[in-house]
Design a protein that fits this description.
This protein is α+β, with helices and mostly antiparallel strands and about 350 residues long. About 40% of the residues lie in helices and about 10% in strands. It is built from 15 helices and twelve strands. Strands 3-4-5 form a three-stranded parallel sheet, with helices on both faces. Helix 2 links the parallel strand 4 and strand 5. The relative contact order is 0.15.
Length: about 350
């Protein structure tokens, strides 16, 4: 892959060409779903330009605490807006709308100029839909209107419990220990120094667990003889396995279960993020901010050719207004007039 420089004013450093290099995306977004989804596009090489209203302070998350990075910037904003650009336009004024719309001629080819989980899932779903639509255009199709709503995504995430109810009116209720609704034991268990999550989704995994924990009484108990029986006597099984797991540490059990069946430690925020592993594998990295050189953020989970995607801090409010409008042909005098009238 050949090296390619980003567009003038683009915050990202030169890097090997990314899949969406050359794509310009204009966004009108705030809070979670839109910014989260468009950050995936930016991480994958698209030039994502946030259209913001300076008089309103831009994206509302710029003013959301408790931690701030000067005026109109915050940790919250940086979480969702890495690798983007910011242009301030007042779209209520004709000159602002005109600036938004000088990006090509109708009918002509496109031209290039230079925590709510449902929010996140909607953002990712929208990003997938957008990339799929672009692929369709590249294959000779036409542009499409993409419509993704929070409600639709949330409903879709009900997955098989929703299917169970639609067809057999089974209501999946809450289960203790973050347990799976039917497979047992798939849940949290106490250890001598914390918690461990164990997944025995199949009879094979159950037999492997019995071999590892070496608990003859549990193995011989008829209440735990098969999946249906274990589900019926879940509370008794939980108590029995707690008694076994509490005899040693989480680390001990993880070592014994490694490569045998799915199991994972349960960490609090400090244990998870002060852990050397996510730093060593590049998931936690430094994205220097003008007001904080050591600002850290999460990397995009997607790797290309085994490498993490490049990242730069989110833009200051309106930081790219003059550069982007200059690319569109606005002169210094015209830009000054727009600023004086409060449009940018």
């Amino acid at each position: 892959m050949s090296a390619q420089r980003p567009a003038a004013g683009d915050p990202r450093p030169p890097s090997p060409a990314l899949p969406l290099d050359g794509l310009r995306v204009l966004t009108f977004e705030a809070f979670g779903a839109g910014p989260f989804g468009s950050m995936y596009l930016a991480d994958l090489g698209a030039e994502v330009i946030k259209i913001e209203n300076r008089a309103q302070g831009g994206d509302a998350t710029r003013g959301m605490g408790p931690f701030f990075l000067g005026e109109h910037d915050s940790h919250f904003f940086q979480t969702f807006n890495l690798n983007k650009r910011s242009v301030c336009l007042d779209l209520k004024q004709p000159a602002g709308r005109e600036a938004l719309h000088v990006t090509g001629e109708p009918g002509s080819p496109p031209s290039r100029m230079g925590l709510s989980i449902i929010d996140y899932m909607t953002g990712i779903t929208t990003a997938l839909a957008l990339v799929s639509a672009l692929l369709g255009v590249a294959r000779g199709g036409s542009g499409r209107d993409i419509d993704v709503s929070l409600f639709d995504v949330a409903l879709h995430q009900l997955s098989y419990p929703g299917t169970w109810y639609l067809n057999d009116q089974l209501v999946t209720g809450r289960a203790p220990r973050s347990a799976h609704p039917t497979a047992t034991p798939v849940q949290l268990f106490k250890t001598a120094d914390g918690w461990i999550f164990v997944m025995c989704m199949t009879e094979k995994f159950w037999q492997e667990l019995l071999r590892v924990i070496d608990a003859p009484a549990v193995a011989a108990d008829p209440r735990f003889s098969d999946m249906a029986a274990r589900r019926e006597h879940r509370d008794a099984l939980t108590a029995a396995l707690d008694g076994v797991f509490e005899t040693d540490t989480t680390a001990h059990w993880l070592e014994k279960l490694q490569g045998v069946l799915p199991a994972a430690p349960v960490y609090d925020l400090a244990q998870a993020l002060d852990n050397p592993f996510p730093i060593a594998n590049g998931m936690i990295r430094t994205t220097p901010h003008p007001l904080r050189a050591d600002f850290r953020s999460f990397a995009n989970p997607i790797k290309l050719d085994g490498k993490r995607l490049p990242a730069a801090s989110g833009p200051a409010l309106g930081a790219d207004t003059e550069a982007v409008l200059g690319d569109l042909g606005y002169t210094a005098e015209e830009l000054a007039a727009l600023r004086a009238s409060g449009i940018t």
